[in-house]
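Support request, please re-run this one:
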Amino acid sequence: MFRVFDSAGSLRAGPRLSGHDTTYPALDGDGNAVFWRDGKLLAVDTDLRVRELFGRDDRSVAMSRVLLLDGGRLLFALGDELLVFRDTGLAALDTVPWPCGDGNIHGNPVVAFE
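Re-run finished. Output below.
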């Protein structure tokens, strides 16, 4: 099940998703979460609607992180293939210090408090 933290810090239930193997999600500037799960590239919007961007009947390959680039371009690896998607309808990666910050290239971000 997809869940969302609301502004009060409580969890809100979203759509049920099939399968269990999931990439770390990327969050775009419009609040869409995008990730690979159960042979599908999925986007979940702020109204918790699921949109399938791509599907493939191969659920056994290794998956990389989903990287969201300018212009809605998205890329990630499945097995030995690098998949690049254009015109996804997604915005650029959000700039908040979320687990996908900077595409999570350096691991989870660290926010310094001074």
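The first strand starts at residue 3 and ends at 5. The radius of gyration is 14 Å.
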